[in-house]
Each structure stands twice: as structure tokens, then as C-alpha cells.
């Protein structure tokens, strides 16, 4: 049997996307090994979730460091010690120093609650509603130094309904995120998705537009 893909998770909150990855793994749909869940917040519920699943955890508090750059290098040094093949940002609420990201090129993905390149950054549901969009969604992309600007791998979409507000839109989108992220990780684990100098390749061919779920 092939060696399972070693995955580290970086998250700041409750960890619902990590929970979706765990569930897919338990169903036999995700041939991976979770080697670490790291967070910038000691009280993040994702840590309890990981501990309950027997996954090693690590917390690094940004307040213990002089600046963001110093913190980011320390954080990624510790993550690297767990020897992950892939680092998944699953609700990590910090902007990361571009130089700290360089060694992870092609080995780090993020899930973002918008149809990128629309609405990078925060408050994506609010911005979609304010713009009068008819469609909203989530994107999984490779991480680069540009905030939410890396190559987009796949997207899930939903129709914005009359009467939707930020809360209802977020609630309806979350189950789609929980399908999208495990599906992308499964493709990476199978060796079907890679990122090189020419961009994303899917099954050995250039990916001209994001996969859709």
C-alpha cells in the first residue's frame, strides 16, 4: 500500500473543516495521516477536537514574539518538525509573512469562503450580499504570499436566496466547505493535483479553470 499523505492542520477556531477531514478519513475516503494540529490560540476548540482524535497538537502564542515575521518563522519551523507532506489552513485567521511561506510552495492549501478572486480577506458573506451577487461559494487554493491570491484548485457554489443575511449564508455554505476540502485533499493524496512553475496540473494536464463541486 502507498504511504499515506502526512497532513498538518493550522487553525484558529472551532475546527469544523478539520472535523470534516477527520470524518472523511474515518469513512475510508481520505488515505492520510494527521501528524499535527497547530493553532495560534490556546483556547481554540480545534485543539480539543484533535486531542480527542489522538492527533498531536501544538500552540504558539503570537504575543510571545516581537513581530509577525519572527512568529511566523518560529511557527513554521515547529510545523516542519512534524514532517508533513501537506499543510492545510482550515480557518487560520492570520496573514502570514511571505518569506516564511516560500519553503511551502505547492505544499500548502487554504479554504476561503468566497468565489475567488472575489472577496479576498474578511467579511466575504457581507460583501457578496452588499454587491447584490446571485451566487456565492467557497474556494480551495494553494497558498502564496498574496493574501487569498494563490492558484485556485476547486470551488463549490450556491445560489443566494431572497432574505439571506450573513448568518444564513454562512450556515448554508459550511456544508459545501465540508465536502470541498476533503475532496481536494483526496485528489492531492492520490497524486492527481500538483502545483509547478506552469501552474496547477490535474491528472498531468494544466488545470484551465477551478474544479467545481
From TrEMBL:
N(1)-(5-phospho-beta-D-ribosyl)glycinamide binds at residues 15-17. The active site is at residue 112. CDD domains: FMT_core_GART. Its EC number is 2.1.2.2. It comes from Dyella humi. Pathway: Purine metabolism; IMP biosynthesis via de novo pathway; N(2)-formyl-N(1)-(5-phospho-D-ribosyl)glycinamide from N(1)-(5-phospho-D-ribosyl)glycinamide (10-formyl THF route): step 1/1. Residues 6-185 form the Formyl transferase N-terminal domain. Catalyzes the transfer of a formyl group from 10-formyltetrahydrofolate to 5-phospho-ribosyl-glycinamide (GAR), producing 5-phospho-ribosyl-N-formylglycinamide (FGAR) and tetrahydrofolate. Keywords: Purine biosynthesis, Transferase. Gene3D superfamilies: Formyl transferase, N-terminal domain. InterPro entries: Formyl_transf_N (IPR002376), Formyl_transf_N_sf (IPR036477), GART (IPR004607), GART_AS (IPR001555). The record marks 148 as: Raises pKa of active site His. GO terms for molecular function: phosphoribosylglycinamide formyltransferase activity. (6R)-10-formyltetrahydrofolate binds at residues 68, 93-96, 110. Belongs to the GART family. This is Phosphoribosylglycinamide formyltransferase. It catalyses: N(1)-(5-phospho-beta-D-ribosyl)glycinamide + (6R)-10-formyltetrahydrofolate = N(2)-formyl-N(1)-(5-phospho-beta-D-ribosyl)glycinamide + (6S)-5,6,7,8-tetrahydrofolate + H(+).
Amino acid at each position: 500500500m502507498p504511504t499515506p499523505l502526512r497532513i498538518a492542520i493550522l487553525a484558529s477556531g472551532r475546527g469544523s473543516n478539520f472535523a470534516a477531514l477527520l470524518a472523511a478519513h474515518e469513512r475510508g475516503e481520505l488515505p492520510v495521516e494527521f501528524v499535527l494540529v497547530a493553532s495560534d490560540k490556546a483556547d481554540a476548540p480545534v485543539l480539543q477536537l484533535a486531542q480527542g482524535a489522538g492527533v498531536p497538537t501544538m500552540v504558539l502564542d503570537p504575543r510571545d514574539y516581537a513581530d509577525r515575521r519572527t512568529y511566523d518563522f518560529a511557527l513554521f519551523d515547529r510545523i516542519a518538525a512534524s514532517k508533513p507532506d501537506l499543510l492545510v489552513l482550515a480557518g487560520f485567521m492570520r496573514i502570514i509573512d511571505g518569506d516564511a511561506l516560500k519553503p511551502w510552495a505547492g505544499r500548502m492549501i487554504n479554504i476561503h469562503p468566497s468565489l475567488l478572486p472575489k472577496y479576498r480577506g474578511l467579511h466575504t458573506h457581507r460583501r457578496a450580499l452588499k454587491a447584490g451577487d446571485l451566487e456565492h461559494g467557497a474556494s480551495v487554493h494553494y497558498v502564496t504570499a498574496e493574501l487569498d491570491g494563490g492558484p485556485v484548485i476547486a470551488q463549490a457554489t450556491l445560489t443566494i436566496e431572497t432574505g439571506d443575511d450573513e448568518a444564513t449564508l454562512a450556515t448554508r455554505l459550511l456544508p459545501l466547505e465540508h465536502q470541498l476540502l476533503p475532496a481536494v485533499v483526496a485528489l492531492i493524496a492520490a497524486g492527481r493535483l500538483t502545483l509547478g512553475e506552469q501552474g496547477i496540473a490535474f491528472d498531468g494536464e494544466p488545470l484551465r479553470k477551478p474544479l467545481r463541486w
